[in-house]
Design a protein that fits this description.
The complex is a heterodimer of chains A (361) and B (348). In chain A, helix 3 packs across helix 8. Chain A is an all-alpha fold and 361 residues long. Chain A has a two-stranded antiparallel ribbon with strand order 1-2. In chain A, strand 1 (47-50) and strand 2 (56-59) form a beta hairpin. Helices cover 68% and strands 2% of the residues of chain A. Chain A has two domains: 21-32 and 50-319, Orthogonal Bundle (ABC transporter involved in vitamin B12 uptake, BtuC); 324-361. Chain B has one domain (2-347): ABC transporter involved in vitamin B12 uptake, BtuC (Orthogonal Bundle), CATH 1.10.3470. In chain B, 50% of the residues are buried. In chain B, a hairpin with a 5-residue loop joins strand 2 (173-182) and strand 3 (188-194). Chain B has a two-stranded antiparallel ribbon with strand order 1-4. Chain B is built from 15 helices and four strands. By secondary structure, chain B is mainly α. The chains are: A mainly alpha (361), B mainly alpha (348). Chains A and B meet through helix 6, helix 9, helix 11, helix 13 and helix 14 of A and helix 1, helix 7, helix 13 and helix 15 of B.
Chain lengths: 361, 348
């Protein structure tokens, strides 16, 4: 029991931290880490071993989080922009990853589905795959920006057709890449024990960080998201910004397509990147970004992506079956969004105030 | 959000009549396209489509989707969305199947269980969306995850229900007089529909009545069209939204049981993608995700269009799995663009 003033400054300080957007994902991360620390500290154990190619690799739950969380983190970058600019979400990213992966393998393998050597350099294949993914992104973007269709509905089209198109690109065959260097992107580069997807994610983060720092992308996106009409009156072209956000998401999709196909050196059209759109949207929501568009915090989204993977791995650790996983995830998500809901927060701070005045009185 | 409210203010309550004609216009387009498609199929694809039973088979298979889509249209009219309905359907199937087979339950209690599950989902989701003002998409996404996860927790493996009373109910066929046809052996075969179809038709009729002629129905449109002006007219916006989601949950329960009645088994993979089909049907039927525009009868036609095109694709010999996905997507794309063009011209 301190004095009144001390209490007031304390509560101010508290609300300041509490109101900070990055607080939600970080608090969730801390809570999860704490829970694991108490329940079973072996969660944090990392061991250095050798994979079947004789390269040193790190393994452990934390490494897996960095590994698979990176895919979601990369998608979360694009998804945050789309959410901020259009006030809706792209639900077709999973299907688009399938298309991107299919194109990548098609270029790498050529006509023969199981060639001994690569038919094209990986960089060429990746560029082609980027262009295709960005085109599909632009398709979504045009539907949203020019035809004024709600993003979720517009991307529903690609969501329904995407996996079919992916299968059609390769005539429903399953190409297999034999070249070991293709496996580096989703696995390990020889000599480096940290999974490559993490480095790719870091590169993406640096790129988007620089873009946001040195261009007006952040300002324009937020302006369009907050009020499309007034941004137009201020000389912005909201349509272009919206399409651009979808194209950037397309680029992210291409990168994830590379990682995903590289992991297995092949593709399974109906399973690849399944439900990843849900994880990406959750990452954006967990980051405390308004799903109705407007202001966004990229860092919070990216942390949100890793938090989701942290949660998934924690559940795996406690022997939750992968099919039952969504139920637990849902409960955690609901608790998080209820805590972060403005109505609940207002109610919370109002009760805090009431309690304080009562105590003072 | 504020910008959206401002832009939609012009097309809000004050223009209720204009909105009603929008609904009718979109509905007409849907019906015309459906009829053209079906007649085209009868002319060009011949024999199969000429039998009335083909049409009844579509109804039999899609009865559950009709009910689910009705719920979806309802929440879409109030500017919400519910993507948990597919998961709820799977959960209802699994719970009923486990109850009937492992606990020797009776069919009546199974129906109660189905309704209770649907209501529970509607209650929780409606509360979170309407009163705590959390995004419908996130809430129902979590609902979907929860339902799918719970399904596998209840029972992992798919199995067929052996309960006698249930199997008898499942096999009940209602014969449609005068619609039968002569089969290859020369015998006259009666056309039939299943019980689920009756349920679906009743649901469509009731909801059509509610939306068109009751105070509650008008409130749904008002809240979806413009929540702000609806509130100023003295409508309890939160309660209306809550009721819409509650009803959608209940319909998911009913739809789940009808689905169960049709397939007669419990499986975690039941009704995969049903939510997307329901959204697609609603949109094809002229309901707009922007709220305030929609028609239950249109949704009914939307479901029929969706499954007719699936049938056409498979009977046209394009049986490869990917063609169905691509054609449905193309059709959805077409309808969306038509809608958007129609709306843009209306505003001018």
């Amino acid at each position: 029991m301190g004095t009144k003033e001390l209490k007031k400054s304390n509560s101010n300080h508290f609300t300041k931290i509490f109101r900070n957007q990055i607080f939600i994902p970080l608090a969730a991360l801390l809570l999860l880490a704490l829970f694991n620390l108490i329940a079973d500290p072996s969660f944090f154990k990392i061991t250095l071993g050798y994979n079947n190619l004789g390269n040193p690799v790190l393994s452990g739950f934390l490494v897996t989080i960095l590994d698979s969380g990176s895919e979601v983190a990369i998608l979360a970058i694009g998804m945050t922009l789309v959410t901020a600019a259009t006030g809706g979400q792209d639900i077709s990213v999973g299907a688009a990853v399938a298309i991107a992966g299919s194109v990548l393998l098609r270029v790498l393998c050529g006509r023969d589905t199981r060639p001994e050597t690569l038919q094209a350099p990986i960089i060429v294949a990746f560029l082609v795959c980027c262009v295709v993914a960005m085109l599909f992104g632009a398709f979504n973007g045009v539907l949203v920006a020019y035809f004024k269709i709600q993003p979720m509905v517009a991307t529903l089209i690609l969501y329904t057709a995407g996996r079919s198109i992916a299968a059609w690109i390769n005539n429903n065959e399953l190409p297999i890449v034999n070249d070991p260097s293709f496996g580096y992107f989703g696995g390990f580069i020889p000599g480096i024990p940290i999974p490559t997807p993490f480095f790719i994610a870091i590169i993406c983060m640096i790129v988007i960080g620089l873009v946001l720092k040195f261009t007006n992308l952040r300002l324009y996106t937020q302006a369009v998201g907050i009020n499309e009409n007034s941004s137009r009156l201020n000389g912005l072209n909201p349509q272009v910004i919206k399409v651009l956000s979808f194209v950037i998401l397309g680029l992210c999709v291409a990168v994830v397509g590379l990682i995903k196909t590289s992991r297995v050196s092949s593709i399974n059209y109906s399973v690849i990147a399944k439900d990843i759109e849900m994880d990406a949207i959750l990452a954006v929501a967990l980051g405390g970004n308004a799903l109705g568009g407007g202001k966004f915090n990229m860092t919070a989204s990216i942390i949100g992506a890793y938090v989701i993977q942290f949660l998934t791995q924690t559940l795996f650790k406690f022997n939750v079956k992968s099919t039952a996983l969504p139920a637990y995830k849902a409960v955690v998500v609901i608790v998080l969004v209820v805590i972060s809901a403005p109505v609940v927060r207002e109610w919370f701070s109002a009760t805090m105030k009431k309690l304080q005045t009562k105590e003072v009185a | 959000m504020s910008s959206k409210n401002k832009t939609s203010a012009s097309g809000g309550l004050a223009n209720k009549f204009k909105n009603m004609t929008d609904t009718n216009l979109l509905l007409t387009i849907t019906i015309v396209v459906f009829l053209l498609m079906y007649i085209g199929a009868v002319i060009f694809l011949g024999s199969g489509f000429r039998k009335p039973q083909t049409f009844f088979n579509i109804l039999n298979a899609q009865a559950a989707l009709i009910i689910l889509s009705c719920g979806m249209s309802l929440v879409m009219i109030t500017k919400g969305i519910d993507i948990s309905i597919g998961g709820v359907t799977a959960l209802v199937c699994m719970c009923c199947a486990v109850y009937l087979d492992f606990h020797n339950g009776n069919v009546f209690m199974a129906i109660v269980i189905a309704l209770a599950i649907g209501l529970a989902f509607g209650l929780v989701q409606g509360f979170l969306i309407a009163y705590l003002e959390i995004q419908p998409f996130i809430v129902t996404l979590a609902g979907m995850f929860f339902a799918r996860g719970m399904t596998t927790i209840v029972n992992t493996d798919p199995f067929n229900v052996q309960n006698e009373a249930f199997v008898a109910l499942k096999g009940t066929r209602i014969i449609v007089p005068g619609m039968g046809s002569v089969n290859k052996l020369g015998n006259y075969v009666n056309a039939y529909i299943e019980i689920g179809v009756i349920v679906a038709l009743v649901v469509v009729a009731i909801l059509f009545f509610v939306l068109k002629w009751t105070k509650l129905g008008r409130q749904f449109y008002a809240v979806g069209g413009n929540a702000q002006s609806a509130m100023m007219l003295g409508i309890n916006v939160k309660r209306t939204k809550f009721l819409a989601h509650l009803l959608c949950g209940l319909l998911a329960g009913i739809g789940g049981f009808v689905y169960f009645l049709h397939v007669g088994s419990g499986s975690p993979s039941h009704a995969t993608g049903a939510e997307m089909n329901a959204i697609a049907s609603s949109i094809i039927g002229g309901t707009m995700l922007t709220g305030g525009v929609g028609n239950i009868f249109g949704t009914f036609v939307g479901v029929l269009s969706l499954s007719t095109i699936q049938n056409i694709v498979s009977s046209a010999g394009l049986d490869d799995a990917w063609w169905t996905g691509i054609t449905i997507a193309a059709m959805l794309c077409l309808f969306l663009i038509v809608q958007s063009v129609v709306m843009a011209r209306k505003k001018k």
